Amino acid sequence: MDREATKARIDALIEPFNKKGVAITDATRFTDDLEFDSLTIMDFVAAIEDEFDIIISMNQQAEIENYGQLIDAVVKLKG
Amino acid sequence: MTEAVNQPDQPEVIEGGQPDLFSKFDPLIEMRRNLLDSGVEDPFSLVMDRVLSPTTAICNGRETILLGTYNYMGMTFDPDVIEAGQKALTDFGSGTTGSRVLNGTYSGHKAVEQALCEFYAMDHAMVFSTGYQANLGIISTIAGKGDYIILDIDSHASIWDGCKMGDAEVVPFKHNDLEAMEKRLRRIPEGAGKLVILEGVYSMMGDIAPLKEMIAVAKKHGAMVLVDEAHSMGFIGPNGRGVAEDQGCLDDVDFVIGTFSKSVGTVGGFCVSNHPKFEIMRLVCRPYVFTASLPPSVVATACTSIRKLMHAADKRAHLWENSRTLHAALKAAGFHLGTETPQSAIIAVIMPDLERGAAMWEALLHEGLYVNLARPPATPANMTLLRCSLCAAHTAEQVQQIVGMFQRAGVKAGIL
Q: Which ipTM value was assigned to this complex?
């Protein structure tokens, strides 16, 4: 799947979760920069899983620290 | 080149020593210090000087009604239970000093497993040294690398730890959300092993799971089902087998996990199952093999208590009565509760924040009432809760006393 197209869809999904309006780049970190707590992470991951019809297990989530890594993981999971 | 450029970054020196492996606990140490600096009695180091009955004790020097013990059926001072324990202590000694698979299986361990088989009407029972180890052991052993575990996000710590230890792919879903669970089951790759983990009663809010619907969906997708019934055993269901029995779906549960440290009134954990190959678990389950078995007195008290719980319909009815009465009275007094209706013997009173929660907890203790103060991160949505668990041995008069204590403490702490 095309990375740009995937990024565009995730950009739309993250907007309601980005309560502080942080300017998001590939290097933006979920806990440190966006201050996501565990419940926000669960809801955000569920939104992505539903949008792309994929599973991002907790094991995979542990490897994803920033926005760019998330996009790459979704691209890979969609094959 | 100036001297400054040659200097390495100076790590922040924290009071109490150089930064080391303990530095990660600094925020918690700080939170605890702030709480105690406010002058509140420490909610996490209460000492029971004497225990008078299943419902009363001398706590920090005061006579106190206990409303946070999980001693649901009040079996801790049952004369038959105590006698069985004393006899086993005399006859078999203070401990086994060995693993169940070596020198640690006595006739008492077999007897308590037989009592569990009869209590649940199931073929196999395996007793662990604690409930924590039962979840840790069963989950980590049956769901390994490449398998998928689908579990409720509000699952107990022992379930999460079992998932992590087994190295399966862990996929949580929103609490009690049937649709979210089904979506995740649907997405699991063809052919992968699947385990769905649910709890009968969720201990923080005291709410129950829609097990019948959830288990039907899990079975439709070919998953095995494990249900933790720690907080329902002895109390919920016509025979006290738990929420799955109450909802008529116990036959579809592959593994029931339970504990001796709540309704049974001692310590230990177990798994019961009808799986034809279940007995192999005794050889492959590391938290079962690599630890000493329960002392003879403990399995003797557990066995006697479980057999008495089979015939405890009157106590179950009284406990329901207590739960309904307290729930209705606290709600009427204006407290914000974890569930709209009483669903279990746990009533969670939601506090606005940790400071006022701790103040309310202290005011209750001064009134002569002990409840559990539950705080983040153990609680859902980072709430501060005063968690009350009722006992079948609480009298109707004690329940009325408790209501009065809550009203006075609520005013004093500024909650009401």
A: 0.93
Among the listed residues A65, A77, A74, the one whose alpha carbon sits nearest the alpha carbon of residue A8: A74
Nearest CA in chain B to A78: B187
Which pLDDT tens digit goes with each residue over B321-337?
999 999 999 999 999 99
B339, B209 Cβ separation under 8 angstroms: no
Residue B109 counted as domain residue: yes
Q: Is residue B123 part of a domain?
A: yes
| Residues of B whose CB is below 8 A from A49 | 183-184, 187
**Residue B399 maps to a domain:** yes
* Partner residue facing A54 (CB), from B187, B381, B382: B187
Provide the number of structural domains found in chain B. 2
Owning domain of residue B175: 78-309
| Same domain assignment for residues B294 and B338 | no
Best of B145, B149, B155, B170 to mutate (most A CBs within 10 Å, chain A): B170
Q: List C-alpha distances in Å: B206 to B134, B149, B201, B327, B400.
A: 21, 24, 6, 11, 21
Q: Is residue B274 domain-shared with residue B291, that is, in the same domain?
A: yes
- Average pLDDT over chain B reads 94
Q: Does A20 touch chain B (CB under 8 A)?
A: no
Percent helix / strand / coil, chain A, rounded to 5: 60, 5, 40
Task: Report the number of distinct structural domains present in chain A.
Answer: 1
Identify whether residues B396 and B274 lie together within a single domain: no
Of A37, A55, A58, which has the smallest distance from its Cβ to B188's Cβ? Answer: A55
The tens digit of pLDDT for each residue in B160-173 reads 999 999 999 999 99
Residue B335, domain member (yes or no): yes
SS3 annotation, B221-271: CCCEEEEECCCCCCCCCCCCCCHHHHCCCHHHCCEEEEECCCCCCCCCEEE
pLDDT at B15: 61
